[in-house]
Amino acid sequence: MVKSFASVLPLICFVLCSINFSATDAHGLSYIEKVCKRAAKYNNLINYDFCLNSLQAIPESYKVEIPGLLEITTHLALQNLTDTSNVIRRLNGITCDDLLKGQLLVCETQYNMAAISLGFFAKECEIKTYLGAEKLASIIECSLKCEEALRGATAAGVDASGLLTNENNNVKQLVSIMKALAHFVTKNKHG
To answer: What is the dihedral angle through the alpha carbons of 84, 89, 94, 100, rounded to the nearest 10 degrees?
Structure first.
């Protein structure tokens, strides 16, 4: 009896590990859906599909709880800020209009400030303190100031309409999701 059980033990371990892996994958998707629904309900400015698509694109999202999703979203937002700063520099390099160059410089400055703030928050996420969560709104403010600067250029006769609209919206969405997740994490920590 002992000999036959020992020969079947590796097979039992394999089956149990396979079941656990499948449950993690299935739990991961439904968990992400649940978290995004909760975030969209918490803040009606959050687009559920944007949340879901952003988190589903990162394989690690399927294996973590809310603190991990917050960390992932923070890194997505940092990448977005960096990419947008690069787009702004390229645009500034190809435009000949001095007014638009000045407004793009405003955007670049705002995005650089947002990246610094978000970098500090990312460090807090890594050590699980979340003390800077209340300052996340300032990052959204940076994208709004960029939009305002570009509207100013358009009002002055320079065609800047639609310039950086997607980038600004992505920042607002990602940071809004971060704010919701930070709220969920700190709420769970304190009761």
So the answer is: 80
- How far CA 59 is from CA of 17, 25, 28, 85, in Å, comes to 19, 10, 10, 26
What are the CA-CA distances from residue 3 to residues 7, 13, 15, 44 (Å)? 6, 16, 19, 61
Contacts with 180 (C-beta within 8 Å, 6 or more apart), sequence order: 38, 39, 42, 43, 46
Q: Are 182 and 133 in contact (CB under 8 A)?
A: yes
Average pLDDT over residues 110-123: 92
* The two three-digit tokens of residue 84, written as one number: 């947008």
135 pLDDT band, cuts 50/70/90, is: confident
Q: Would you state the structure tokens that stand for residue 75, as one six-digit string?
A: 């890194």
Token look-up 């400055």 returns 109
CB-based contact 65:24 (threshold 8 Å): no
Tokens found for residue 77: 């937002």
Percent of the chain with pLDDT over 90: 64
User: How much is the mean pLDDT over the chain?
Assistant: 84
Give the ranges where 43-136 is alpha helix by DSSP (H): 48-56, 66-94, 98-126
Provide the token pair at 187. 């709420």
Tokens of 28: 């991961």
